[in-house]
Design brief:
This protein is α+β, with helices and mostly antiparallel strands. The chain has seven helices and twelve strands.
């Protein structure tokens, strides 16, 4: 939708009001209600070494070291985030190792627009697969008090991954600001939000079976389209 000819103050106000009605679609905003808890899809049990095994619906246990293969990627989900439209974060494996890079664009200020270089609550960290799950389950890097920790994650194995390109994408999404609404530069109704960040990072990594995420897409809908990805409940630990 191009509205480049309507950039008056009134046009901007109307467009932002329209964006506010769909902020849950891609706004990646916290909401005042508490998380509803983890789904009953899977149950986590402790292993002898203190790790976690996740029991799936078919009874198959998921390895505590992550998806098989030298590469891999994960999407972390806050199902109750953004007025229950969902919020997402990302993780990718440093190929050939048990080191993972993971992060998110949290947007704790709830702003519909933050210019490039502004504070958008973006963060990333690096650690083992077990550490990644633990920190995401506790929202350990959330800038402030989180009301919706990550409660679900989906992962996929990969024979390879472009780690250097993914790291560049991380830097890009952390510095480009945040937007849900009218782009003043192009006049387009678009987004640069949590889902856009997840998609751009994992696409740069060349993640297998990564479904395209159009701007202003709904995170909770998009995660259901990840064909051939594992699906797990994430409990605080």
């Amino acid at each position: 939708m191009n509205i480049g000819e309507r950039r008056s103050r009134l046009g901007w106000t109307v467009a932002m009001a329209l964006a506010a009605t769909v902020v849950g679609v891609a706004g990646c905003r916290p909401t005042p209600t508490a998380a509803s808890g983890a789904s009953t899809r899977e149950a986590a049990t402790a292993t002898a070494d203190g790790g976690t095994r996740v029991q799936g619906t078919a009874g198959a246990a998921v390895s505590a070291t992550g998806p098989a293969g030298p590469g891999g990627a994960c999407v972390f989900v806050k199902p109750d985030g953004a007025q229950k439209f969902g919020h997402v974060g990302w993780g990718f494996r440093v190929t050939g190792t048990d080191r993972w890079v993971y992060g998110a664009v949290e947007n704790p200020t709830n702003a519909l627009y933050t210019p490039p270089g502004g504070f958008i609550g973006a963060w990333h960290a690096q650690g083992s697969y077990a550490r990644m799950l633990s920190e995401m389950s506790r929202d350990a890097h959330y800038p402030g008090t989180s009301t919706h920790p990550y409660r679900r994650y989906r992962c996929v194995a990969s024979p390879a991954g472009d780690v250097a390109a993914a790291r560049r994408a991380v830097r890009a999404v952390e510095s480009r600001g945040f937007l849900v609404g009218l782009d003043r530069t192009t006049g387009d109704l678009t987004s640069r939000d949590c889902l856009d960040a997840v998609y751009d990072v994992l696409h740069a990594y060349r993640t297998r079976h990564l479904t395209y995420a159009p701007h202003l897409d709904i995170p909770n809908v998009w995660v259901e389209t990840l064909w051939d990805w594992s699906d797990h409940t994430l409990r605080p630990h």
